[in-house]
């Protein structure tokens, strides 16, 4: 990785092109601590506050961001990998696009995939009931808390969760999630 | 019983549990890194309150935003209050929401569906 | 899921496409890219973000101060040099980036510039790159006394200040888009 680090300007237009094509406003890659989560939230919140959208839209975008970012701080595998944590936010004529990704251990893949697939088949009412069931019966302790966050995201966006698992090595996968908050 | 007065930070709410001045309030934003640690003193206070309850407590919950991890702890607080209420101590929860924030209103409605205690939902 | 993909894909690039961009960020060790409107308000927010990130990662005070100063100048250059809307605007978005090379933190700005503003800017950049520490100090003093110079070049004093803080050569590039506009990119290093 180090052979190609950032030391010339040749790729700047490529980055601009990628940002434009993906309709991105902000891309962050690297460490994800609560401190960085708060810094990223402040950054996007200030940007959001300059728009004229309803408070409820802003709150939804904020909420989806919090869940995505905190999922990374809580569930990202801490070892060193080829792939890093990533968070991107973009704005298009459809709404806000929020993309996040992190490396997880291979044994967690099936459970997470099943969870999202199940959430994606649910109606609004079913999601509401599932949320109530989950919050009442499933403890937040342990590492299974991602479920509640994902249900929340699905409910707040009203759109299904788009996701992917990409193998990094034998023990790790890169999990990415993209959601859209309509405006 | 100790008075709790925790000022708000950018990721934790203001919490006042003051039986002397009859002010009971949780307000602001709740998205701490460790919700269990943050709400620990609140849960302990409620345990004490359960042992020596004071009637007619009105808990104002005026949250601008809370994450899903906090939503579980808020439910734990409400379930504790439900227990105290059902043991015979009259009390009330007032859930505030900004008129423009329908999601916060709905969140209040959902809690009121889950717990059995006087629960008022009010715009501010 | 199927329907989900269809809806999202109607107007958007696929997840694979974003993933490729992420790979580019990994390869080049880019930490942050912001693309869009630059205003005084936004600059403050980007500065606050960077301060906080580097503080939380225990970056040395002196390095942080340098980065902060350089970033202020770079961001203000972008927001001040906003191209007036003449109808022939080729719509190149402004970009600010933060990254790493093996020994340095790297700051990059890239924005549109009117071609007639290039010669004085290029002169200033070359002049700054030809000077040593003492020379830069002298130039800085002179430029401050000679206020009109900085007005014509726009980035006059700012560029000198950046060079003094960076203590490394400034890398730059002008890429012509049409008769009126070019893209100006600037890369600044601060040693770790």
CATH fold-level assignment of chain C:
Heat Shock Protein 90
Largest interface: A-C, 63 and 62 residues
Quote the beta fraction of chain C.
15-25%
Span from first to last CA of chain C? 45 Å
The SS-based structural class of chain C is alpha+beta
Return the average pLDDT of chain B rounded to an integer.
Answer: 95
CATH class of chain C: Alpha Beta
- Beta-strand residue percentage of chain B: 25-35%
Mean pLDDT, all residues of chain C: 86
Q: How would you sum up the global shape of chain C?
A: globular
Overall number of domains of chain B: 1
Give me the side-by-side strand order of the main sheet of chain C: 1-2-3-5-4
Q: Element order, helices and strands of chain C?
A: HHEHHEEHHHHEE
How many structurally independent domains of chain C? Answer: 1
Describe this structure in words.
The complex is a heterotrimer of chains A (183), B (124) and C (192). In chain A, 47% of the residues lie in helices and 23% in strands. Chain A has six helices and five strands, in the order H-E-H-H-E-E-H-H-H-E-E. In chain A, a hairpin with a 3-residue loop joins strand 2 (86-91) and strand 3. The longest helix of chain A is centred in the middle third of the chain and has 21 residues, at 55-75. The radius of gyration of chain A is 17 Å and the shape is globular. Chain B is α/β, with parallel strands linked by helices. Chain B has one domain (4-123). Chain B has helices at 35-51, 68-86, 102-114, and strands at residues 4-6, 14-18, 23-30, 57-66, 91-97, 119-123. Chain B has a six-stranded mixed beta sheet with strand order 1-2-3-4-5-6, covered by helices on one side. In chain B, helix 1 (35-51) runs parallel beside helix 2. The longest helix of chain B is centred in the middle third of the chain and has 19 residues, at 68-86. Chain B is globular and about 35 Å long. Chain C has a single domain (14-191), classed as Histidine kinase-like ATPase, C-terminal domain (Heat Shock Protein 90), CATH 3.30.565.10. In chain C, helix 4 (61-80) runs antiparallel to helix 8. Mean pLDDT of chain C is 86; it is low at 1-10. The longest helix of chain C has 20 residues, at 61-80. The N and C termini of chain C lie far apart (45 Å). Chain C contains eight helices and five strands; from the N terminus they run H-H-E-H-H-E-E-H-H-H-H-E-E. Chains A and C meet through helix 1, strand 1, helix 2, strand 3 and strand 4 of A and helix 1, helix 2, strand 1, helix 3 and strand 2 of C.
